[in-house]
Design goal:
Elements lengths: L1 H9 L5 H15 L3 H51 L15 H41 L18 H39 L3 H8 L16 H39 L3 H5 L2 H4 L17 H39 L6 H14 L4 H46 L11 H16 L1 H19 L4 E2 L2 E2 H40 L11 H4 L51 H5 L12
Antiparallel strand pairs: 1-2
Helix pairs in contact: 3-4, 4-5, 5-7, 7-10, 10-11, 10-12, 12-13, 12-14
């Protein structure tokens, strides 16, 4: 009331009573009737009642709004607690009495705190869900720059829900890491394969996805299912390409080696393609050298194969003749007669006709060479004995010439060397019969095993040995005749000495030195020189003329079947040597 009065004082003491008094004065002055006065006072009272009534209504509405605000605040407080999962009442006002405004004032700090927590939770949820959405988009391959921030469900902002999102995010991050690792492995494999195949890695990998090139960061590379699938397919395709190229290169390398071997290519020329032939036996995984399976390298090998293939025919005659020469050398060393002219004509005809593959022709000649070597090996023991026999015959011939030399015991220069040789020659000559017997036995065994005659330069060896035995027998008979003749001459000389007291000069006597004559090869024994032509060189070699052909002319062997005409010749030959007969 005091406040009202003070307010009235401030307004110039204007109050209801003062106003009513002033109104009464005016009515008195005007002369209003009591009825009018009562009517106007009733109207004033009604107007005042209406104002009070309106104020009461406004106050009631204000109270209702405050109550609704209090109720809303309590509901919001409850919903925030529920959304945030806050079951604790810490910070929540326990006062539920007092004026409405007091209750609102008490609940406001708690609401503000919960709102702040809610904003922080929403931000946390938004960050986690954004990362989840981004990773899911990367995995699905649908991530775009314009992707919007995901909507956060504000009805559940609890820590439990946040933990679920975070666990999901960790799982996705792990999956992303695994996928990224797999992508990098695929990219590395593609890089290695492109290096071996000589392909452009950048264009190859960017065809799968633009983010896979080296200029982009690791985290920016695509890890989608489609990218992984396409990378896997590209790796499979490159590995298949690598396998096919390796097979093609190995086939070309095999052809190169066959052609090189066929054409006897020099090592320097072969070394130019070491990078091709080095992988001939390698597996797919073992070929890792950059450019080892490049298309230009394979093309280079193919061009070389084609070039050699074209040269093959032109060089076949040369190679075939070279092998024919080797074959003839083997036969010559084994003293087997062949017709080289006919063989060379046959080779020329086969190569010119084109009806036989060069490799087959050379393989056939290699087979012939192999068989010839086997034949030579089977004849080696007999041929060695033939060499010894011929050598002994040469020494025998030399010894007979030496024995006919009247000055062999003179003190001339080198006489002692001839004397030593003569001693060795006598030992060697004494072994000839046993050597011939052994040679005949081995030759017969060889012929029985194979069913063919043992030919020596086109002449049967046994026939040669038989003829030698006959000539040796004839020579022994000649020696015996000379000894008997000398004995008869000595006896006549003794008788003449007894009768006349003097002895005739032996220098004038008939001597076998000139009576017998020369060697059996062209002398008095009538030995057929062609039958015993045992190759003068004694090493089985044949001369080669300018045209590369073999000269089949066989010189006469230095076997000497000479009738001894002097006493010394008869004294150095055993009269008890066995006589070889024809088998």
């Amino acid at each position: 009331m005091a406040a009202t009065e003070a307010h009235a004082h401030l307004l110039g003491e204007i109050t209801c009573n003062s106003l009513l008094q002033k109104l009464q004065d005016i009515w008195d002055e005007v002369g209003e009737s009591d009825g009018e006065r009562d009517k106007m006072l009733l109207q004033i009272e009604q107007d005042c009642l209406d104002v009070y009534k309106r104020k009461v209504e406004e106050a009631a509405i204000s109270r209702a709004q405050l109550l609704q605000a209090l109720s809303d605040a309590k509901v919001e407080l409850s919903s925030l607690q529920s959304a945030l999962g806050e079951k604790s009442s810490a910070g929540i006002p326990g006062k539920t009495t007092g004026t409405i405004k007091e209750q609102l004032a008490a609940i406001a700090p708690a609401l503000e705190l919960l709102w702040k927590q809610k904003e922080e939770r929403i931000k946390e949820f938004s960050d986690v869900q954004s990362q989840i959405q981004k990773i899911c988009g990367e995995i699905a391959g649908t991530l775009t720059i314009d992707d919007q921030t995901p909507a956060v469900d504000e009805t559940d902002l609890s820590l439990k829900k946040l933990d679920e999102y975070q666990c999901h995010l960790q799982e996705l991050q792990k999956e992303k890491s695994d996928r990224l690792h797999k992508v990098l492995e695929f990219v590395s494999t593609v890089h290695d394969l492109c290096a071996v195949l000589g392909m452009d890695f950048f264009s190859t990998v960017t065809e799968v996805h633009p983010t896979l090139n080296d200029s982009t960061g690791v985290q920016s590379k695509s890890i989608s299912n489609d990218t992984l699938s396409r990378l896997a397919k590209r790796v499979v395709a490159l590995e298949e390409d690598k396998k096919q190229r390796l097979q093609k290169l190995q086939a070309l390398a095999s052809q190169l080696i066959d052609l090189w071997n066929l054409m006897d290519t020099a090592e320097e020329e072969r070394a130019l393609f070491d990078h091709v032939t080095c992988n001939i036996g390698a597996s797919v995984d073992e070929v890792t050298v950059p450019g080892a399976l490049a298309l230009d390298l394979i093309e280079q090998a193919a061009v070389e194969v084609e070039r050699l293939d074209q040269l093959k025919s032109s060089r076949m005659k040369e190679l075939a003749f070279k092998k024919q020469a080797e074959l003839e050398d083997i036969y010559a060393g084994a003293h087997i007669e062949i017709d080289p002219e006919a063989a060379r004509e046959r080779i020329m005809a086969l190569v010119d006709s084109g009806n036989v593959e060069p490799t087959e022709l050379l393989a056939d000649m290699d087979d012939q060479i192999s068989k010839a070597k086997e034949e030579a090996i089977s004849r080696k023991e007999i041929l060695d004995k033939v060499e010894k026999w011929m050598s002994a015959c040469e020494e025998e011939s030399w010894l007979e010439d030496y024995n006919r030399d009247d000055n062999r015991y003179s003190a001339s220069r080198g006489a002692h060397l001839n004397l030593k040789r003569a001693e060795k020659a006598r030992v060697l000559v004494s072994k000839i019969p046993a050597l011939v017997d052994s040679l005949v036995a081995k030759t017969r065994t060889w012929e029985e095993d194979r069913g063919v005659s043992f030919m020596y330069d086109g002449v049967p060896l046994l026939a040669m040995l038989d003829e030698y035995a006959i000539l040796r027998h004839e020579r022994e008979e000649e020696k015996r005749r000379l000894r008997d003749q000398k004995k008869f001459q000595d006896q006549q000389s003794t008788e003449q000495e007894a009768m006349f007291g003097s002895r005739s000069s032996p220098a004038k006597s008939t001597s076998g030195k000139k009576a017998v004559g020369g060697r059996a090869n062209g002398g008095t024994n009538g030995t057929p020189g062609r039958r015993l032509s045992l190759n003068a060189s004694q090493n089985g070699s044949r001369s080669i003329n300018k045209d590369g052909k073999r000269d089949n002319t066989r010189p006469v062997a230095p076997v000497n079947y000479v009738a001894v005409s002097k006493e010394d010749a008869a004294s150095h030959v055993s009269s008890t040597e066995p006589v070889l007969v024809s088998p």
